[in-house]
Design a protein that fits this description.
CATH topology of the largest domain: Rossmann fold
Number of strands: 8
Order of helices and strands: EHHEHHEEHEHEHEHHE
Strand content: 15-25%
CATH class of the largest domain: Alpha Beta
Strand order of the largest sheet: 3-8-7-4-5-6
Radius of gyration: 19 Å
Largest sheet: 6 strands, mixed
CATH architecture of the largest domain: 3-Layer(aba) Sandwich
């Protein structure tokens, strides 16, 4: 489900129950925002993702993956499952990276609502600067020995300021900083632990060989999470 400007919500359908699982979420978003709900029928399921991985995904492609690469609007992806996804998101888990936070936060706040009130959990995963390859891994000379601790403190202070701002607006928000490698895995694990209804994350929109070689946190979230994932594309200025 994508949100094309101005004030429109697009729900692609193909006649399958799998694709129609997203219709309730689209209707709910349109009612809350006053946006026009657009339904479009296509020949392939674009509302949900089959979660292909490895070479099968590389060679066969994925409609959902192509949408994430091309669209410049937030896209809400829902995995097909036997039990329908909730139409209302009450516990929203927001993954931030310290660089593209403002549009991600705005999209997360638009996803929730005051009735019923949404609870927001903001997190940032701080990865160690020096790769842990062996006991002989050297620390870059220009960084202080406590550099990772400094980054963790800065992340905690930043998220604390963010949640304080949201508290002043009457919103329920908490934050948690995680340390370690594997950002997507840690985000999914914590989201499961708090029983999140939805995960919100941003993407820099890497394409082609850059994305293939380096991977994408957003891509791993979409494939690995069991709850809906709202991907917010943020293009470099």
């Amino acid at each position: 489900m994508s949100t094309p400007p101005p004030g429109g919500i697009l729900v692609p359908l193909d006649g399958s129950e799998m694709a129609e699982q997203a219709l309730a979420a689209g209707v709910s978003r349109a009612r809350k925002s006053g946006a026009t709900l657009h339904l479009v029928t296509v020949h392939q399921p674009v509302m949900t993702t089959h979660g292909r991985g490895g070479l099968s995904r590389l060679w066969l492609g994925s409609v959902a993956d192509r949408m994430l690469r091309r669209l410049d609007v937030p896209v809400l992806l829902l995995h097909p499952r036997e039990v329908a996804h909730p139409a209302e998101f009450r516990r929203i888990f927001v993954a931030l990276d310290g660089e593209i936070e403002e549009p991600v936060v705005d999209a997360a706040l638009a996803l929730g609502g005051p009735d019923p009130p949404a609870r927001y959990v903001f997190t940032r995963v701080v990865e160690p600067t020096t790769p842990v390859l062996s006991g002989f891994a050297a620390r870059p000379g220009h960084l202080p020995r406590n550099w990772n601790e400094v980054r963790e403190i800065e992340a905690r202070n930043h998220l604390a300021r963010l949640t304080d701002q949201l508290h002043a607006k009457g919103l329920d928000a908490t934050s948690q900083v995680l340390m370690g490698r594997g950002i997507a895995g840690q985000v999914i694990e914590l989201a499961d632990a708090i029983s999140a209804d939805c995960i919100v994350g941003g993407t820099h929109g890497a394409r082609g060989m850059e994305r293939l070689m380096l991977g994408s946190v957003a891509d791993k979230l979409v494939r690995g999470a069991t709850v809906p994932v709202l991907v917010v594309p943020v293009r470099p200025r």
